[in-house]
Amino acid sequence: MKANNRPWFWIPVLNFASGLPYAIIISVSVIMYKNLGINNEDIGVYTSLLYLPWVIKPLWSPFIDLYATKRKWFLAMQLLISIAFLIVGFSIPMNHFFIISLVIFWVAAFASASNDVASDGFYLLALEKDQQSFFLGIRSTFYRLSMLTGNGLIVIIGGYLEQEYGDKQKAWSYTMIIVGLIMTLITIYNYFATPRTEKAIIKNSVEAQNASFGTVFASFFQKKQIGIVLAFILLFRLGESQLLKMLTPFLIDDKAVGGLGLTTQDVGIIYGTFGVFSLTIGGILGGIVISRDGLTKWMLPMILAMHLPILGFVLLAHFHPASVYYIYATVIAEQFGYGFGFAAFMMYLIYVAEGESKTSHYSIATGFMALGMMLPGMASGFIQEYLGYGNFFIWVFLATIPGLVLSRFLIFPKDFGKKSE
Predict the structure, then answer these.
(1) Residue 310 and residue 404: Cα distance in Å, rounded?
(2) What is the pLDDT, as a whole number, of residue 202?
(3) Exposed / middle / buried, residue 163 (Cβ in 10 Å: 0-12, 13-18, 19+)
(4) Which of 178, 162, 155, 144 is nearest to 31 (CA)?
(5) Which run of H or E residues covers position 50?
(6) What is the structure's pLDDT at 147?
(7) Of 259, 161, 108, nearest to 100 (Cα)?
(8) How far apart are CA 85 and CA 179, in angstroms?
(9) Model-level pTM?
């Protein structure tokens, strides 16, 4: 399989196809539902439940190994995602659009999580070791570009259509149909661009495979410090998980209810352009300093860089500055800090996954990470409604403390992540 398969032609778009559905399902859905009149409690609960497929994907990932090829899996899943977004678009004008669209988003989320598993496996099979290292940055870049497209371009299109038609239902119906058509074109491209030399592996013993997976799964919970490790993974994003769910409602809500009163297009421009650019620069810089000095030196500074900018939203919620530049500055600082600090967290997850079953253990670790995002996010709308935006952001900042404290008890090699001389 690892012949000359022109990776430049398929790696960028294949990874774009992983990031775009995630951005639409997890982030853009929040903006859409807010503009369609859904309250914050329901947004917080139901859109957070959409994280669940990424939480439990380690449970069915062996099935993707047992049947068919990775290429058939990700093509089928991308086609299913395309159809799902088209159905969401057509469902929005209906009376019970909220329930219908959530069910379809749920299907799309399972398909997207499966697409991620198959795409990652295909990447490892299709490339030699040196190619994998070289294209790692390319994968990351195009994944982030897909997030820019979702959180920026798609939101801007939705905002433009709102103004053009004066009808938010029609605007978001057309927007989701556009997303479905984009995913369809991506699927067609990947069908022709990805190499077809992968062979399906016929498993002689399904029972043996299941037993093997059971052993691998159990071995994860036998790692040193596993109690502290799991507590850290689950609590590290306790504040961020709530911030992400209520930040868009805060930006869009009327000033009369404590929001900033921005338009949908404003949000798309701020987060989808300046925000993603800052996130990318922060992530690149985070990788550079860890590679230079190792994780130990940068763990605490990077965690602080990730969480301290939340104080900017505390100030915005209390003072409501008239100038939009304060909002831009806060978002840029928060996104840069997130990109910079999250690099330390992901590097630690790589350390947790070290060992014979690295791929499976990394999948399990990221599943717990997604669980730590889903559960607090479900409660975020209720907490915000009870506290109001000003006190809510104070609570979010305080919620970052448990993860910070637990990080001081983690044991890992001092130079872990440092590039060899």
Answers:
(1) 14
(2) 44
(3) exposed
(4) 155
(5) none
(6) 79
(7) 108
(8) 7
(9) 0.73
Are the beta carbons of 156 and 262 closer than 8 angstroms?
Answer: no
**Look-up: residue for tokens 């990775």?**
70
Q: Which residues of the chain have pLDDT under 70?
A: 1-5, 62, 65-66, 124, 127-141, 144, 197-213, 272, 356-360, 419-421
Separation between Cα atoms, residue 359 and residue 380, nearest integer Å = 32
Closest CA to 246 of 32, 51, 41: 41
Asked if 196 contacts 71 with a C-beta cutoff of 8 angstroms, the reply is yes
The DSSP line for 247-297 is: HHHHHHS-GGGT-----HHHHHHIIIIIIHHHHHHHHHHHHHHHHHH-HHH
Token pair belonging to 379: 């409660």
**Inter-residue long-range contacts of 299-305, CB under 8 Å, 24+ positions, other chains counted:** 299/344, 299/348, 299/407, 299/410, 300/407, 300/408, 302/340, 302/341, 302/343, 302/344, 303/341, 303/344, 303/345, 303/403, 303/404, 303/407, 304/341, 304/404, 305/336, 305/337, 305/340, 305/341
Structure-token pair, residue 151: 């959180």
User: What structural domains and CATH numbers belong to the chain?
Assistant: 7-193 (1.20.1250.20), 222-411+414-418 (1.20.1250.20)
88-115 pLDDT per residue, tens: 999 999 888 999 999 999 999 999 999 9
- Retrieve residue 249's tokens: 């409602």
Tokens of 223: 């790692």
388, amino acid identity:
G
Q: Rounded to whole angstroms, how far apart are CA atoms 130 and 25?
A: 34
Asked if residue 298 lies in contact with residue 289, where contact means CB atoms within 8 angstroms, the answer is yes
Q: What is the pLDDT of residue 290?
A: 81
- Per residue in 58-79, pLDDT tens? 777 767 766 778 888 999 999 9
Do 64 and 111 touch, CB atoms closer than 8 A? no
The answer to whether 198 touches 71, Cβ cutoff 8 Å, is yes
- Would you state the pLDDT for residue 89? 95
Which of 132-135's residues contact partners 24+ apart within 8 Å by CB, and which partners? 135/7, 135/11
| DSSP-derived secondary structure letter, 149 | I
The identity of residue 344, as a single letter, is: A
